[in-house]
Amino acid sequence: MLLNGIEGRIEKNVSLKNLSTWRIGGTAEWVVWPKSVAEMEKLWRFSQQENIPIRLIGRGSNLLFPDEGLKGITVVTTSLTSEVWGECSLQAEMGCSVARLAQEAGEKGFSGLEFARGIPGTLGGAIVMNAGAHGGEIQNVLYKVMVLTEEGQIETLSKEELTFGYRECSLRGKGWILAAELKFKPGKIETIKAQMAENLAKRKAAQPLELPNAGSVFRNPPGDSAGKLIEQAGWKGKGIGGAQVASKHGNFIVNVGNATAADVLALIQAIQRDVFEKYGVELRTEVHYMTS
């Protein structure tokens, strides 16, 4: 397959394990790391003209890739990291690390991203799933986004034109986020840094960061905790194949050695069935299973 005009890195037959924080997945037929928004447009047009499957990923921190791999083109945004800081504002491309942006905002005395200091994903991924932690969400600092629509048009949308929910945004599945503008509140650098340090300490204490994982697997039910329900149901430390419920946190599934997507899916379904039978609660997944 020829991708004329693409200066970014292009590789064939790439292990998806290397693109996933879970270290799970088969082989991606083509992987492209574009260097500009213009290249993103070219990739989209090429895929439509040639009728080739295409999908967008960032750091793979909230994704489960299939064991059979992915056909077509997998676009990785991590080379798209341009950022321009203003007075309590930021314009950044979608591949920027949201944790790094939180750190930089804090060093400038800009408040609003403290919750994101430990989130391992990209800005684009954080927006499309309305990432949150410690009582904060990305929608709270979002001002507007630049999007490549399903029709191949670039549009700029204000926050008011979007709908957000718990780990949800109306942009999911409706084009690609290319860049965003964030607005912050002025704050004291020392206070902001202290809050981020506290958030990181809580994360380290409560989460199994030493093993490959994809963050929280299930969304918290209204007024309840998925992790608490899973722990009460007796799932901590139990697993299927190489996938295991973390002994440290019930809402994390860790890869303890050569876990497959089939292992993870089977474990998720077993937990869902058991929790529903015991407590009448339907657990919905927060992680996204990506298929061709």
From TrEMBL:
> What pathway does the UniProt record associate with this protein?
Cell wall biogenesis; peptidoglycan biosynthesis
The positions making up the signal sequence are none
Task: Report keywords, A-Z.
Answer: Cell cycle, Cell division, Cell shape, Cell wall biogenesis/degradation, Cytoplasm, FAD, Flavoprotein, NADP, Oxidoreductase, Peptidoglycan synthesis
**PROSITE patterns cross-referenced by the UniProt entry:** FAD_PCMH
Mind listing the GO biological process terms from this record?
cell division; cell wall organization; peptidoglycan biosynthetic process; regulation of cell shape
Identify the Pfam families for this entry. FAD_binding_4, MurB_C
Similarity comment: family membership = Belongs to the MurB family.
Q: What is this protein called?
A: UDP-N-acetylenolpyruvoylglucosamine reductase
The organism is: Desulfitobacterium metallireducens DSM 15288
- Name the gene that codes for it: murB
